[in-house]
Amino acid sequence: SSPHLCLPPGASKWDVREKVWDYLESSGLADFPRPVHHRIPNFKGSHQACCSIKELDIFSRAHEIKVDPDKPLEGVRLAALQARKTLLVPTPRLRTGLFNKIVPPPGATKEILRTCATSQGIKEYSVPVGLDGKARVDLVVVGSVAVSEKGWRIGKGEGYADMEYAMMVSMGAVQEDTPVITVVHDCQVLDIAEELLDGHDLTVDYILTPKRTIKTNCKRPKPRGIMWHKASY
Fold first, then answer.
1. How far apart are CA 88 and CA 22, in angstroms?
2. Which of 99, 104, 112, 123 could form a disulfide with 129 if both were Cys (CB 3.0 to 4.6 A apart)?
C-alpha cells in the first residue's frame, strides 16, 4: 500500500477521503479539474493507467462497457470507443434516467472519438438508454477516491456508483460475476479497514494505476439490488 499516506487507526471514510484529496493536491499529483476535493480525483498519469485496460482479457472480450463520467476515466472511454465497443455512461447525478449510450458519428476520426470520450462528448454524442433497455454490461469501470488491494472501495461519498450498480443488478444488466475495474493513482491504494464497508458498498476486481495492474481476488459479494432506504428522492 502507499508509503506516503498513513491512515490513523479508527480513520473514518471521510478521514480517508480528506487525506487522499489533500495529498494529491500537496504533492503536485492532482490534475484538472481542481481542486480535486469532493470529486473522483483526476491525477497525473491517469491516461497511462487507463491504457493498461487494453491488456486485460476481460476488456478484449467485452462488448458492452459501462464507464463512469469522471475525468480520470476518459482514457478508458476512449479505449472502448476505439475498440468499437458499446459504451454506456451513467447520466451525471442520475437526473434523467440511468445511462447514455455514446454513439460516435459514422466514420468518426480519432479527434472526434477523443471528444466523444470527454464530458462534452458525453452530452453531444449520446442517446438515452431506459431502465427497460436490454443493456447487458460485460464490464463496469468506476472511479474511486481510495481503494485497497483487497478490493474495498471508497467513492466520493454520494453513493452513486453503488446505486448505479444496484440498478444494473435490478434491471438484469450485470451478473454476479461481471468484473468491476477502478483506475487510481498509486497513492490512492491504501489499507482500508473492513469495518468501514457497508452492505451496499461496491467492491472492485481490478485496480489500474500508472505503475501496475492489481487483481484483487475480492470474494465479498457485490450489492444485490437497490437498498431503497438509502435512496434520496
1. 31
2. 99
Nearest to 223 by CA among 169, 149, 153, 147: 169
What is the domain extent for residue 204?
45-217
pLDDT single digits (tens) 93-138: 666 667 889 999 999 999 999 999 999 988 899 888 876 767 789 9
**Which three three-digit cell numbers place residue 224?**
444485490
Q: Cell 499516506 sits at which residue?
A: 5
User: Is residue 147 assigned to a domain?
Assistant: yes
What is the per-residue pLDDT across 68-100, written as a single tens digit (0 to 9) for each? 999 999 999 999 999 999 999 987 666 666 788
Q: Contact, 26 vs 10, CB < 8 A?
A: no
Q: What CATH number is associated with residue 57?
A: 3.40.50.10420
108 in any annotated domain: yes
- Give the dihedral of Cα atoms 200, 205, 209, 212; nearest 10 deg: 150
Q: Counting every residue, how long is the chain? A: 233
Percentage, residues of the chain above pLDDT 70: 91
**Taking a C-beta distance cutoff of 8 angstroms, is the pair 187, 121 a contact?**
no
Alpha-carbon span 65 to 89, nearest angstrom: 9
Q: What is the mean pLDDT of the chain?
A: 90
Strand 139-142 relative to strand 64-67: parallel, antiparallel, unpaired?
parallel
Rg (CA), the chain: 17
Examine residue 143 and state whether it is found in any structural domain, yes or no.
yes
* Contact (Cβ atoms closer than 8 angstroms) between residue 156 and residue 188: no
Q: How many structural domains is the chain composed of?
A: 1
